[in-house]
């Protein structure tokens, strides 16, 4: 809102009008704008959307349409970096210092324990050098991540997530703290709302009922199963790290489809059969795991594998770009598919 924009503008000593009143594009909106040619360049940091974003054909089309793709990552090649015109090597977490806040509000100092290889730099350093090269030296005076954290801390003053009592020096000396931590002698807040007062005008909790909405795409006669995607315990996101560990690769070498025993019988599928899973957007070819652990009418496939592991191993060949209207989070957990047993294997399909 205008109050928040004014606060940041004053803090940065910039004109109020320089801070846009409109939010930027969400991730899927950004790719849609690239596909239409409205966004000409994209700079991708610390993520691998060519594998993690739904409807892989749509994502690849957008990346090919862009006139400039910059990928800044600690790993290469990845599904996304193969589309890059410019690659910027980044230091990973153990090669730079910083602060991490987890989901229980615990703020932890992360020390640098190794030097980054080659020309790799911390992300903040890459962005600062780029900004200075563009002539914004005064706006990017930072010489350390500690300076950037200190600026962030100042902007949290008197807010719900007040970090004012937190500093690199204190975190190094005392260990992790939980926000809000408004003063240097405050011990941090282990549990919120113990006084039964909430950050609302009347200090009462607001309980907001949510109406259930059906998935955008429901099963029908042509696509009778609902596919949900997710993770396996031995891999992390798009396998840029875990895919390089032989033991983890050996424990989970390939994607698979979990399907209920009743559905498997219905479609003539036996445990360990190879199956073709088809949606309105694409297909995959994986081995079936017949199980009672998934409900009839539903099936499950992990999303970690991208097309570089095999074109028809990518779960996001199937998924849909429909999204929540408020959060803009894509509906990765529901799309309609059909399954058939594979008896012949055309070259390149496995």
- Count the strands? 12
Q: Overall 3D geometry?
A: globular
**Helix percentage:** 10-25%
| SS class | alpha/beta
CATH architecture of the largest domain: 3-Layer(aba) Sandwich
Into which percentage range does the β-strand content fall? 15-25%
Task: Write a short abstract of this structure.
The protein is an alpha/beta fold. The chain is built from nine helices and twelve strands.
Give an overview in words.
This protein has 350 residues and is α/β, with parallel strands linked by helices. The chain has 2 domains: 2-178, 3-Layer(aba) Sandwich (Rossmann fold), CATH 3.40.50.740; 225-341, Barwin-like endoglucanases, CATH 2.40.40.20. The protein is 21% helix and 18% strand. The chain has helices at residues 2-12, 27-35, 49-52, 56-65, 123-133, 145-155, 168-174, 246-251, 261-266, and strands spanning 41-45, 68-73, 86-89, 98-101, 106-110, 177-178, 225-230, 256-260, 274-278, 283-291, 298-302, 335-341. The chain has a 6-stranded mixed β-barrel. Strands 1-2-3 form a 3-stranded parallel β-sheet, with no helix packed on it. Helix 2 packs across helix 4. The termini are far apart. The mean pLDDT is 95.
Layout of strands and helices, then pairs:
Blueprint: H1 2-12, H2 27-35, E1 41-45, H3 49-52, H4 56-65, E2 68-73, E3 86-89, E4 98-101, E5 106-110, H5 123-133, H6 145-155, H7 168-174, E6 177-178, E7 225-230, H8 246-251, E8 256-260, H9 261-266, E9 274-278, E10 283-291, E11 298-302, E12 335-341
Parallel strand pairs: 1-2, 2-3, 7-11, 8-10
Antiparallel strand pairs: 4-5, 5-6, 7-12, 8-11, 9-10, 9-12
